[in-house]
Structure formats: C-alpha cells, structure tokens
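Async update (no meeting this week)

Hi team, since we skipped the sync, here's where things stand on the single-chain job. The sequence we agreed to prioritize is pasted below, unchanged from the tracker. I ran it this morning and attached the output directly underneath so nobody has to dig for it. Comments welcome in thread, and please keep replies under the output.
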Amino acid sequence: MLYKCLRRIVWILALTIPGSSPSVFSAQVDFCKLFGSVYIEKSPQKADFRVYEEESEAFSDIKVYEVESRVYADREGLWHFTDTRAFADFTIYFEPKEGLADFSVFFTDVESYAGCNK
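Output:
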C-alpha cells in the first residue's frame, strides 16, 4: 500500500515539474531521421524545430536535398517544402542565431549527399 502511494506521489511530482513529463522524453526526435514535407514557420514558438542554415557543409549537422515532389522525400535528408501547413510532416523555423537552433542544415545540390553529417 505504501509503495502505491509513493508511486502516485512521484508520478504527480513528475507531471508538475517543468520538462520532466514522460511525454517530453518520448517526443524527442533524432534530426538525422527527418524527411518528408516541411513547412517553414514565421514564428519559432509554432515550429517543431529551430534550424540554422550553415554556409559550410563541414560544420552542418545534416545535409538536406530539396526534392520537387513529396513522393520523392522518402529518406533521411530529402525534404519537400510545402506552402500548406496541413500537408507538412514537420515544421521548421530558420533561426538566425546558431546558438538558439536545435540543429544546423546545409542545402546540397547532390541528392546522394543528403543525410546526417556524423
């Protein structure tokens, strides 16, 4: 009985402490695995990810190739930009300050170079 009571107290505390909710941990996404349709947000609060556009391929976290159709955005690093938020798989905000970004991207002209830069 005491164990159940303590477990409930720990669960309630976990839900009330900011950033410690179990859903926060399960919602984390590996940016290397991102592909599909992308919508560019104008507000950083509405975006799924804050992205810094790197000028150098060597310093980026992921190399992105922009495809013409969402059908071809079927593996890591292949992104199709859409004008309709409802059609997007995820949303990004282009962060002007590198330190505030979740990750950095470099847009490549070669499809086979797309992917994580680890």
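Quick observations from my side:
Helices lie at 2-16, 22-26.
The chain is about 15% helix and 25% strand.
Reply here if anything looks off.
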